[in-house]
Design brief:
The chain is an alpha/beta fold and about 1250 residues long. It is built from 40 helices and 41 strands. It is globular and about 120 Å long.
Length: about 1250
């Protein structure tokens, strides 16, 4: 065992009256005891010190273990209780009934982190603190863990910093109590001594450390412990910030028995001059951390006590009240008041709130007025001033006013952290500023001292308090400015809490608490000013000119003011203008609402979201409403009579929702009967214990006979616990848009997942079946519910029974008269079942609105065809849909398996390192009209897709399976549109799709995209029928009406993908025989070539040759990255030598360097304009030779040229200048067209 060295040693002395003790230890073990006297020790052990104290008449030896036991017993009786701020004689409470573990972190919080915490509120505030990974909570037993020390060395001193009221002192007392009871530090410390700095400051005269440690032991006994086991002692010094440190040069006593003043003794202990081997735990406010850190011995570590976590707040309320129900009621009410709930992270605030509620009693929570948030903040301020300040009332008011001045300075710019220069002069030099926390912000290479209030809500409170403490004239002006600023839209919403606190501080009782028995006339003037302002706000809200002041804010202001006369006047005005209340009880307490509404006799509307137990309190107000929007949690049969009474008759019930309820059939009928007597009914959702044939029939019969003449939507839902016993999870019957809807929903487990039942794997089947009738007719629903119930899930993909139920569902739907709309949603379906449903939809054009969605389309071998399959049809919409859709809107089929299934693995990380390794096909959509008698074997499509979606671009089978898919698409009757998403533009796909379009006369639009991104600068291919067949590859320049088209008809096309080629050919199926694959191969090659590439000319030649092979080529637009002489010549050859093209445009985006080209000076700085020459303007000469005409902006030449190919005339374009590598011409735009007389015209835009 390790023991301290002292100056006096008596190694050869044998104390009188002590028996010999023989101690043996096995090899490698050790023996530890407080004192080993007159003992024989054997074994392979190490004795670092064997100390025998001097024995004599003045120092009678006592076993230290017995001394410690005696000391612990005294601690247990003394520290088990605490005296609260309001405790009277005999009203002490048990420490363990109040103590909750605080949130303790080992870090210095950064400036941005502090700002985020200070500006967040409610649950978001607690989540911000606790979700921060750096805010790892450290329990009390880990404070001295080696993991908390520098370089993993156990710290000798721990600094526990915390703001006022954060729980530092009670935590220190808890540590001492738990050590004494053996629950804490039993292996670390044999003795824990507790020094309160507040008590030490009142001591005078000289004394020793032994004298300071005044406890149940005698000074000699304390001295013996200090001398014998210093390395096993923990000193807790509580409240270092309360020590009055001075610049005195008084010597620090090195020994515990040397007398001195209390301050030098504590400093000696802190510095390690005395009891160096002991351990220290020092609590302090943030303002004294720097001083403490400089004098505290090493190694040391820093901890911050941050008050309660959200869980800690809840536990405190539970522990404070003996009645669990009462505790829950109080906690829920406080939680709904965001400002107050946020402040509860401070333990003192928690204590004040609980004390006030406990004083009211359980009945007071329901019947009495709730204490305002402002009054609780005032109680907190006064409590801290009384117990931590020690100043006079006048000095306290000056302090509060200065703090208010600081708070006001930061509000306009939303500043929550201040430098010392920002502080008012009166408090900037104070060593300890209450209500402000201090920290050092690291700014480059310096540490900057920063100040801030404990939370933004306290800064808002002190801002309002500043106005109250200001002279009446100044207060009126400043408040007018505040209210005017708050009226400037949402950007000044941060001032709303200040206004709420201002209302609260204007309350007569609250102002007396702050100002004492002689309140200033300022409060009276402020009350009058606020009354006029809130009246103006309500008037403006009623006419819609000031709607950013919501009802929550207005009601809270009136509640904080708590002035009956003002409330009556304001509510009388509000009632005359029309009261419309919209609130969720998560944001406002119903106590607040009911306090304000008790003086109103008529309310226009209330929009309420609350729990069922609040219904009783809200009942009087609900009865006075003419329009209701209600959302209740946990409504039961016992609440139904109260609900129906509140609903009354002849009201507009726009919404009635019940979550987590358990209504009986009788209660449902009672509610429905009440609803039938209302003026109008919107969406109704009632939760039953279970849905059965009986309550479905009752609901339907009631709605059919009582409510078919109005618009409604009534849903009955099953409890989650009994869903397996129900026909379905939800059944809805609704009347809207002259149609009657029936919807059955099944929710079981998680969407899209396989559930486990009785040890077997079950796939989720249909989750929703919905259909609409117009006109309404009575239909038998029994068989429908039976089929629907059996379609919820299936055990295997080849389940015959499930297929029979799919057929039964389709049979039922086909027999429904007046069926106009259908909505089917399933989690898992096979290709066979999906094909049957799709065939039915294709053959029934009378169903005008269709939605059919399958989350996972499976194939027979238990693999997915796609992760999302959907079919939809909607009525024709002008300007959004092609005119061909007017008479018979198409069905649109979309299949999707992207991302997660193929390109990504189970970990969510990409499996394919290169784009060529990704699956080629990403998505496919088809549009075709539903036709009676049409039949397509959709199973063939699904199987071909399944084979295709697994192939990458490098697979040799890709072309074969692509052709197979395109052949199937050609067989779809009336196919109107095809959209394909690929990872890259593949020549075989592009050529095959274009050939499909040319050979399929019903196709109006074809689109190939190379990305799922919504951005427009991605490569695409588009084809449409417009004065022939128009193909665009590179960018999407097609003006085809589509919801996502995004093409501006009034802007010139912007080329974001280069090269970009647009051609128009005649609508002739013979064009399908052209070599389009060669064309797309050349296009793909041109994408990656530069002007210096030797293959450039060859690729241009291949592309033009493919175009030349098309017999019906009409128009060509080429947009390349650059333009060369030979390339331009070959382009012009195309229109000169091919008789079919009538117009050609060749443009370049990249300008060549002027040093590499030499045009005649006469043609510089000239830009061409394209003029189509009419036949009347042409030479009447009947000569049909292929001449061309070169036009500039300055002049148009009419000279006829020979009919030789333009490539032979390249010297005329280049002016005979040769370039180093490849010849580029100094122009950006060449346009050429043929006139009706057969002549060619050319226009060249010259570059400067």
């Amino acid at each position: 065992m390790d023991m301290s060295n002292y100056e006096d040693k008596g190694e050869n002395m044998e104390p009188h009256g002590v028996s010999k003790i023989n101690i043996s230890a096995q090899s490698g073990s050790n023996v530890s005891a407080p004192v080993i006297l007159n003992s024989k020790v054997t074994g392979n052990i190490n004795i670092s010190n064997n100390y025998f104290p001097t024995v004599g008449p003045a120092a009678e030896i006592t076993d230290i273990s017995s001394l410690i036991t005696e000391y612990k017993e005294s601690i247990l009786s003394e520290y088990a209780y605490i005296t609260e701020y309001t405790s009277r004689a005999g009203e002490q409470v048990l420490l363990n009934d109040r103590y909750i573990d605080p949130l303790i972190v080992q870090k210095h919080r950064e400036k941005k982190e502090r700002e985020n915490e200070m500006c967040s509120r409610g649950e978001r505030f607690f989540n911000t603190r606790e979700s921060n990974q750096r805010n790892q909570n450290i329990s009390l037993d880990k404070l001295f863990g080696p993991e908390n020390g520098p370089k993993k060395v156990t710290p000798r001193a721990v600094i526990l910093q915390g703001d006022s009221g954060s729980g530092k002192s009670i935590t220190a007392q808890k540590i001492v109590l738990d050590w004494a009871s053996g629950e804490l530090y039993a292996r670390l410390f044999d003795v824990v001594f507790h020094l309160r700095c507040k008590d030490l400051s009142g001591l005078s005269g000289e004394m020793s450390l032994v004298d300071l440690l005044n406890c149940s032991l005698t000074p000699n006994e304390i001295g013996q412990i200090l001398k014998d086991i210093p390395q096993r002692i923990l000193f807790i010094i509580d409240g270092f910030d309360e020590l009055m440190l001075s610049a005195s040069k008084e010597a620090l006593p090195p020994k515990p028995v040397i007398k001195s003043h209390p301050l030098p003794i504590v400093c000696s202990l802190l510095k390690g001059r005395m009891m160096r081997e002991s351990f220290l735990l020092v609590t302090t406010r943030s303002n004294a951390v720097d001083k403490l850190e400089n004098i505290l011995k090493k190694p040391q570590c820093f901890m911050e006590i941050m008050g309660f976590s959200e869980k800690g707040v809840s536990e405190y309320f539970q522990r404070f009240f003996e009645d669990e129900e009462f505790s829950s009621q109080v906690y829920e009410q406080v939680k709904r008041q965001e400002l107050l709930y946020t402040a509860c992270f401070i333990p003192v605030i928690c204590w004040i709130v609980c004390t006030i509620f406990k004083r009211k009693g359980k009945d007071g929570v329901v019947t009495s007025e709730l204490t305002t948030t402002t009054s609780i903040f005032v109680d907190f301020v006064l409590t801290l001033l009384k117990h931590h300040s020690g100043s006079s009332q006048h000095e306290d008011l000056d302090l509060l006013k200065n703090l208010g001045q600081l708070a006001v300075s930061g509000m306009p710019k939303r500043q929550v952290l201040f430098s010392r220069n920002d502080l008012p002069r009166a408090i900037s030099d104070l060593p300890n500023i209450p209500f402000l926390c201090t920290f050092r912000h690291q700014e480059r290479t310096n540490l900057k001292e920063m100040f801030g209030f404990m939370h933004l809500s306290f800064q808002e409170f002190f801002t309002a308090l500043f106005y109250v403490l200001t002279d009446e004239a100044d207060a009126k002006t400043k408040i007018e400015e505040l209210l005017e600023s708050a009226s400037n839209g949402r950007r000044n919403e941060h001032l709303f809490p200040v206004i709420r606190f201002l209302f609260g501080l204007s309350n007569k009782k609250v102002s007396r608490l702050i100002l004492g028995g002689n309140p200033q006339s300022t409060s009276t003037a402020i009350r009058s000013q606020l009354e006029k302002w809130i009246s103006r706000v309500i008037e403006k809200n009623s006419i819609g000119t000031n709607i950013f002041y919501n009802n929550d804010f207005i009601l809270h202001c009136l509640y904080e003011l708590h002035d009956r006369d003002i409330l009556k006047n304001v509510m009388k005005l509000w009632e005359r203008l029309g009261i419309n209340i919209h609130w969720s009880l998560k944001g406002i307490d119903c106590q607040v609402v009911m306090y304000c509404l008790k003086y109103s006799s008529r309310i226009i509307s209330m929009n309420v979201k609350c729990i069922a137990k609040d219904l009783k309190m809200l009942h009087p107000a609900l009865c006075r409403c003419t329009s209701l929007w209600l959302d209740f949690d946990s409504l039961s049969d016992t609440d139904v009579n109260l609900l129906t009474s509140a609903l009354g008759r002849r009201k507009d019930v726009d919404y009635l929702n019940m979550e987590d309820g358990a209504l009986s059939d009788e209660s449902v009928q009672t509610i429905l009967k009440t609803l039938s007597g209302q003026k109008s009914v919107g969406n109704i959702r009632l939760v039953l214990k279970s849905i059965s044939d009986a309550n479905v029939d009752l609901t339907m019969n009631f709605l059919v006979h009582k409510m078919m003449d109005r618009r409604f939507s009534v849903c009955i839902a099953s409890q989650a616990e009994t869903i397996h016993k129900s026909l379905c999870s939800e059944f809805t019957m609704a009347s809207k848009n002259n149609s009657v809807w029936f919807t059955v929903g099944h929710s079981e487990g998680h969407q899209g997942e396989i559930s486990e039942k009785l040890g077997l794997c079950y796939y989720r089947g249909f989750s929703k079946i919905s259909f609409a009738l117009c006109p309404f007719s009575v239909i038998p629903m029994t068989e429908f519910f039976k089929s629907s119930h059996n379609l919820r899930c299936f055990s295997e993909l080849k389940n015959i029974e499930f297929g029979v139920n799919v057929d039964a569902l389709l049979s039922f739907i086909s027999c429904v008269p007046g069926l106009t709309e259908l909505d089917l949603q399933a989690e898992y379906l096979t290709d066979i079942w999906t094909s049957r449903i799709l065939c039915y939809l294709q053959a029934n054009p009378k169903i005008s609105h269709i939605k059919f969605h399958v989350s996972n389309l499976m194939i027979s071998d238990d693999e997915r065809v796609c992760s999302t399959f959907s079919v939809f049809r909607k009525p024709f919409e002008p300007y959004k849909m092609h005119d061909s859709e007017r008479k018979n809107p198409s069905l649109t089929l979309a299949m999707d398996r992207w991302g997660h299934d193929m390109a990504y693995g189970s970990s969510g990380e990409p499996e394919h390192s290169h784009c060529l390794d990704k699956p080629a096909l990403v998505k496919l959509t088809l549009s075709f009209p539903p036709l009676e008698g049409s039949s397509v074997n959709w199973e063939v499509l699904f199987k071909r897709l399944y084979n295709l979606i697994q192939l990458t671009e490098q697979c040799p089978e890709l072309d074969e399976h692509t052709d197979s898919l395109l052949q199937f698409l050609h067989s779809v009757p009336g196919l109107k549109e095809v959209k394909v998403w690929l990872n890259n533009l593949i020549e075989s796909w592009a050529a095959g799709l274009f050939t499909l379009f040319l050979s399929c006369s019903s196709l109006l639009h074809l689109q190939l995209n190379t990305s799922m991104s919504v951005v427009s600068d991605v490569e695409s291919l588009g084809v449409m029928r417009e004065d022939g067949v128009r193909l665009s590859v590179g960018c999407n320049h097609l003006n085809y009406e589509d919801d996502c088209c995004g093409i501006d008809l009034f802007e010139p096309p912007e080329h974001k993908v280069v090269p970009c080629i647009t051609i128009t050919v005649t609508d002739d199926s013979e064009n399908a025989n052209a070599d389009w694959r060669r064309f797309f191969q050349a296009y793909n090659q041109l994408k990656d070539l530069t002007e210096c590439s030797s293959e450039y000319e060859e690729s241009v030649c291949d592309l033009l040759s493919a175009l030349h092979s098309a017999s019906g080529l009409k128009k060509v637009d080429l947009f390349f990255r650059f333009m060369t002489v030979d390339g331009a010549s070959r382009v012009l050859d195309l229109i000169q030598m091919n008789p079919s093209p009538s117009e050609l445009t060749f443009m370049a985006v990249k300008q060549p360097e002027t040093s590499k080209a030499n045009f005649k000076k006469d043609y510089r700085n000239e830009f061409s304009s394209v003029h189509r020459t009419s036949e009347s303007e042409e030479d009447s000469d009947s000569d049909r030779s292929n001449d061309f005409r070169c036009q500039s902006a300055r002049q148009m030449s009419g000279d006829s040229m020979s009919s030789s190919p333009l490539s032979d005339c390249s010297h005329e374009i280049n002016d005979s200048d040769q370039l180093d590598n490849v010849e580029r011409i100094l122009c950006s735009d060449i346009r050429m067209w043929k006139t009706l007389s057969g002549k060619c015209s050319i226009s060249i835009s010259l570059l400067a």
